Amino acid sequence: MLSPTSIRLLAASMAVTAILGAGAGAVLETGFPMPAGQWAFVLLTLLLPALGWLIARRRPRNPYGWLLLATADCLGLGALGVGLLVSAGADAPRGLLVLAALLASLFVPFYGLSWVFVPLLFPDGRLPSRRWRAGAVIGGAAIAVHWLGILLAPDQVYAISPVGNPLGVTGPGELVVAGLGGLGQLTVLGTALAVLVSLLARIRRSSGAERRRLRWMAAGLAVTLGGFVLATFFIVTESAAIWVGLTPVLGALPAVIGVTVFRHNLLDIRVGLRGSRFFLVFDLRPTVDELLSELAPELEEAEPGEQLGRLAEAVRAALDARWAAVTLADGTRVVAGAEEGEPELTVPAGQGLIACGPREGGFNGEDRRLLRALAVPVGLAIQSAGLAARLVNAQEAERRRIERNIHDGVQQEIVALIAGLELARATGADSETLALLRDQARQTLADLRELAAGIHPSVLSQGGLAEALEERCSRLPVASALSVEPELRVRRFSDEIEGAVYFTASEALANALKHARATAVDVRLTLSGGRLQVAVVDDGTGFDPKAVARRGLVALADRLAALGGGLDVVSAAGEGTRVRAWVPVHE
């Protein structure tokens, strides 16, 4: 693949070749100073290479710019060949005459490319449909056959050179060559008319900016073909009004392409006037900062799922793609626009992907840089959406666990207590039965308090984080040590921070007892560098963190992440486990 510098040099060299060839051919044909007609020809030939260079440089992956440059080179080198034939005498070297004939014959592919492929592949260098594959092959073959017929024709090239064709075929082969040339030209003209009909059909099916662009191209092709008919008539009659026909042949298509490039913002280029100054503005797309500044108020008010949709629409609008999609790690897709065609540009975004559908004119390196920059906020939105979904699932699981505990435990005890009270009232129960019911009511109350403590222990609300951890460690059936910095014994934090740190430590302690068979645990609560951190270290059996799901710690890790914190687990078989959780706080 060529480097950006090589691409720019190639595009510039092709444009310069076309311009210099046309200029040199005009000078050789009439001498200098040139008449007005030759100056008009040279000026008209400047349009096509200029547009081709601009598109190839701005959109190097778009074949259309290179097609225009190749067409312009055929025109410029063809003009140079005609100039060499006109200026060469009969005694000119044969090698020069052969070269001149070869170059002059390039007018044929110039016309064929202009009539067939320039309008057919407009504006992204692609066929409008698969059905045109056969038509494109027929058109290319017809251009080649027509070119071969002109190259080998024995008569004077284009009827303007005093030198006969050094490559001309005479004798029996002359009829074959003439037949090839005529058949190729008729086929090219027929294909050009089919392209014109196809453009009109596409105009009927399209809408908006695409319809306006196609209208210009259809009009340009119609004018070009009409101009060719006029130019052919004037050549036959040797009329000076030949330029009535040649002007649209050379200028109509470049003019309509220029209109679509500048007026309809085909390549992010705009023409403007400021006072008396004429200027071009490139890169009309907003920057990432501008996009995020516009989106920030909407993103703040939107739910995570809505954020993805708005970011996808921002990507689609910024790159002027037909559609843009954000794909989450679980395969969920959020699409902006009508998803038609395969994605042409895809970049990773956090744990997901951003994909862009086709764009008229294709994508260039600047588009990729813009999309990679947009991938950062999109990746954060994907992470936020995933985190929100996991938190919702964790909250739902916790709600069901509490519901289960109430239904299977306290609710059944209360039902039994009510039944006992009803029986005691009906039978006039003695003091022993009432004492039994009292003890049952006290046990139910104790179970309720224990359940409430599991949701949010009262000691955490009343005494703070350090006191709650001390109370939790004091009830452990194994040796435990708690280390708390002195200032943390009296300092309080928000309920969200204290709850996240406490329940993470509690889950780590429960895992050490249930799964690791630990005989000792060490808990440390510290505050450093704006981070409140708790670490739980046990001497248990340990495990491979990559091979074992953390289960209960996953929901707590999401809870910490929602606060801007994190959780890590370090363990190995036979080496115990270290769980560390932290959240940012203002010191």
TrEMBL record:
It comes from the Bacteria. The chain crosses the membrane at residues 36-55, 67-90, 96-122, 134-153, 175-202, 214-236, 242-262. Keywords: Kinase, Membrane, Transferase, Transmembrane, Transmembrane helix, Two-component regulatory system. CDD domains: HATPase_UhpB-NarQ-NarX-like. Residues 504-585 form the Histidine kinase/HSP90-like ATPase domain. InterPro entries: HATPase_C_sf, HATPase_dom, Sensor_HK_TwoCompSys, Sig_transdc_His_kin_sub3_dim/P. It holds the Pfam family HisKA_3. The keyword Ligase does not apply. GO terms for molecular function: kinase activity. Residues 398-460 form the Signal transduction histidine kinase subgroup 3 dimerisation and phosphoacceptor domain. This is Sensor histidine kinase. It comes from Planomonospora corallina. The lineage of its organism: Bacteria, Bacillati, Actinomycetota, Actinomycetes, Streptosporangiales.
